[in-house]
Design goal:
Length: 806
């Protein structure tokens, strides 16, 4: 933006070439006139031939046609306006100035695609003017203009054009796709001219003319400025040495909000003798370096997407590149989001796979926003190691004496020579798979028992070879092998002694091994355990789930026994019931009741999703189970990992909380504890990263994220979305609530849409639960009262600094 204005030069230029919205000369387009897509060489030109109105072919033969206005004398035929950029006209379509005075675009079947003009406005005519403006006017004495293209710009304005309040420009989607894109220019009701990113509805540039701006004017001298109602110039948007009283004589001009979010003022020489090549070149662009611009909310990038790096080329255009180890989420969207091209680190036990990652250094590089922890007076090496060993750290930015750790996804990446920071990006090592989580289906990890069976099998085969002369022996050994290990149904567990001082059974390891058929049928796997199917030897033959722990939270026999004792004393209809355990040598196993319908994740994120009423009930059930753990247990329990995978559903779809056995147990007189970060990425409360004591409010936060997932039937983080502001569910839900666009969250769920009041109430409860300040989050008891309607839900604080400002 020009910071200094030369008043006298500007005033002279403004007086010499006043605005003119309708040229004096034009050619009438009479009623009934038509243009068709079958002959794009036929169009309605302006009197001098500078501009033309008609159809332009878009892309290949199947893409369709654009009803447009373009520079007709230029070889590029540069388009400056279009009517149907988001709904191309198929071959066989036509535009007609109908006998009732309307301009109507129809498809080959006669269906209306687009129309302008007023019915009953009286005799009318159309005209393509030399200013680039197409008008519909009446033939009355006043020659009133009932519609003009200048009042409905697309992404471009021309000399002589005025933008009034509420008038906007919308960028194209890319340099080859003319559909509506990511950026808008708008003169707001308060008179402030802003550029903003559509997906997040947040400005990244402002004219600072709020309260006084009245119009944006592009005059014939090449000046673009914001003007007050009394004619006072408030802000000069574009000017240069090229802009003067002879500009209109020497150059074609246009100003466009382009697909990369930059507003550029272009000129094109009318004659080769002007000393310029015969092509468009830039006079001015705003902002000068969009990579350094920031959204007020700190969400995502501006010119480039999540996890992408923005840099400015010599042509002052932004370049978007995925950093090392990342690839484009959509290969066709060059300015879109990037995603890791390596499996993510295991957050349940990150120490197991630190060796699978490395740090990639990037000088003069930084990402703005997304910090969750910072350290001062540290070295670069300590910053590097801190991020490498922290699974929640996707990248650290090191400044001399300061280290800033960033969570995934990475926001506002930029490379600039003035940037003093050094980015330390954590990426997977080449060909590394140790301890990594992948999205592909894999076989369960080989247990010691499986290895034992493998060795036994190898032994049998070896013996068979030694006795190869006896076919009978071979057959006998094969028969014994098949009989012992193959096709065996789960053996029922016989009753065993009740553990001393406990109200649950104690099982031997051999019993559980045989009952699960050598731990054959896997029900689920996790970082701490694998769950297998088995059957109890009771009159009902009850199916149970045997959880085999890979690593206990509390090491040692006494610690495990104490933890199991605490778990066994929990008794609530919304908690998974512990039926027994095994504590034998190095083996730690827990026996739980089996949930027929699996986890909430299985039913929530698939096509056959739970109904709205069932989801509401699941939310209430889960809240009741958490309330019991927090407030009604003899030993207060913080779950630390509330998520859909840990909410299991029985045959009647009643929710039961699982996996609270790995949580940190607190004594009766304790309400706070300090411990290593636990939980799953996307559900973790911010206080985990602040080296402060945590309370039961970390579960309230996780429940808030879970509640949002229940409301919207989607995961807390999702990459394949139409708009990048929808990727992080908490941010999107917060934004939709502020803008009162709850229908976007409900999607096509008709039951939820009809239950608008309850939908909004649950959304408000969720927003209360995910407040940055733990003290603002309600207790689970109050959450239950609000969900059930026994307590009013007050309006949650706005803005939400942690969720909405990154």
């Amino acid at each position: 933006m020009a910071s200094t204005i030369v008043p006298y030069l500007f005033l002279l230029a403004f007086l010499v070439l006043p605005l003119s919205t309708i040229a004096k000369s034009y050619k009438n387009i009479s009623l009934g006139s038509t243009l068709t897509t079958s002959d794009v060489t036929n169009f309605w030109p302006s009197p001098s031939g500078e501009f033309a109105f008609g159809f332009q072919k878009i892309g290949n033969s199947s893409s369709g046609f654009l009803l447009a206005i373009w520079f007709n004398k230029l070889k590029e035929k540069t388009i400056v306006w279009s009517a149907n950029r988001d709904k191309f006209a198929p071959d066989g379509s036509k535009i007609q100035l109908s006998m009732d005075g309307r301009l109507v675009l129809t498809d080959p079947n006669g269906q209306e695609i687009w129309a302008r003009g007023e019915l009953g406005a009286g005799p009318a005519y159309g005209a393509m003017l030399d200013t680039g403006n197409f008008v519909l006017a009446t033939t009355s004495i006043s020659s009133a203009t009932q519609w003009q293209s200048f009042d409905e710009p697309t992404d471009t304005i021309l000399p002589g054009q005025v933008l009034n309040r509420r008038t906007r420009l919308v960028s194209s989607l890319s340099d080859t796709n003319v559909s509506s894109g990511r950026f808008e220019l708008l003169l707001q009701d308060d008179g402030n001219l802003v550029f903003y990113k559509v997906e997040v509805n947040d400005a990244y540039w402002s004219s600072t003319t709020g309260g006084s701006g009245y119009q944006v004017i592009f005059n014939q001298s090449g000046f673009i400025f914001v003007q007050a109602k009394n004619g006072t110039l408030l802000n000069l948007i574009s000017s240069s040495n090229e802009a003067n009283s002879t500009t209109s004589q020497l150059y074609h001009q246009r100003a466009i909000l382009e697909y990369d979010g930059v507003f550029r003022h272009y000129v094109y020489p009318k004659k080769s003798s002007s000393g310029r090549p015969m092509e468009w070149f830039t006079l001015y662009n705003i902002p000068d370096n969009i990579c350094l611009s920031q959204l007020q909310q700190g969400i995502g990038g501006i010119a480039c997407g999540f996890n992408s790096l923005c840099s400015i080329g010599t042509d002052r255009r932004p370049r978007c590149e995925c950093p090392l180890g990342y690839i484009l989420n959509d290969p066709n969207d060059k300015i879109g989001n990037c995603k890791p091209n390596f499996p993510e680190q295991d957050c349940k036990d990150e120490s197991r796979d630190v060796e699978a990652f490395t740090i990639h250094e990037m000088l003069n590089t930084s990402w703005f926003g997304g910090d969750y922890a910072s350290y001062i007076n540290g070295t670069e090496d300590s910053c590097r190691q801190n991020c490498l060993s922290d699974c929640y750290c996707a990248l650290a930015v090191y400044y001399p004496g300061a280290c800033w750790k960033k969570r995934y996804p990475l926001l506002n990446g930029r490379v600039d020579s003035a940037e003093l920071g050094k980015a330390l990006l954590k990426i997977g090592k080449d060909n590394s798979t140790v301890g990594l989580t992948t999205t592909t289906t894999t076989t369960p990890p080989q247990s010691q028992d499986g290895e034992k069976r493998k060795n036994q099998s190898s032994l049998i085969i070896s013996v068979s070879v030694l006795l190869g002369s006896s076919v009978f022996v071979l057959m006998l050994l094969a028969f014994l092998y098949v009989f012992k290990f193959k096709g065996k149904k789960p053996k029922k567990i016989s009753p065993y002694q009740v553990a001393s001082g406990m109200n649950i059974r104690s099982f031997s390891y051999n019993e559980l091994e045989e009952a699960t058929n050598g731990f054959e049928e896997v029900l689920g796997t996790g970082a701490f355990s694998t769950v297998y199917k088995a059957v109890l030897n009771d009159e009902n033959g009850k199916i149970v789930a045997v959880k085999k722990l890979h690593k206990t939270v509390t090491e040692g026999e006494e610690g495990f026994q104490a933890e199991v004792n605490s778990i066994s004393r929990t008794n609530h209809k919304n908690l998974i019931q512990l039926l027994g355990f095994c504590n034998e040598g190095q083996h730690r196993l827990l026996v739980y009741e089996h949930m027929k319908n699996g986890s909430l994740a299985d039913l929530l994120f698939k096509d056959s999703r739970l109904s709205w009423s069932k989801r509401v009930q699941v939310a209430i059930d889960t809240a009741k189970g958490l309330c019991y753990l927090h407030e009604e247990c003899r030993d207060q329990i913080i779950h630390c990992d509330i998520k859909p995978h840990n909410v299991l559903l029985d045959e009647s779809l009643t929710a039961n909380i699982a996996d609270f056995g790995i949580a940190k147990l607190l004594g009766k007189d304790q309400t706070r504890t300090t411990t290593k970060v636990r939980g799953t990425r996307g559900y973790i409360a911010p206080e985990w990263f602040r080296n402060t004591a945590i309370t039961v409010k970390v579960d309230v936060y996780s429940f808030g994220i879970l509640l949002l997932e229940l409301i919207c039937c989607r995961k807390s983080y999702k990459q394949d979305v139409a708009n990048e502001n929808e990727m992080i569910l908490a941010e999107w839900a917060c934004d939709c609530y502020r803008r009162n666009e709850l229908h976007l969250l409900a999607g096509d769920d008709e039951e939820a849409i009809e239950d608008t009041m309850r939908f909004e109430k649950l959304l408000m409860v969720a927003i209360w639960c995910i407040q940055e300040n733990p003290a603002l989050r309600p207790s689970m008891k109050n959450v239950i009262l609000m969900l059930e309607g026994s307590k009013e839900v007050s309006i949650p604080p706005d803005p939400f600094s942690f969720i909405c400002s990154g």
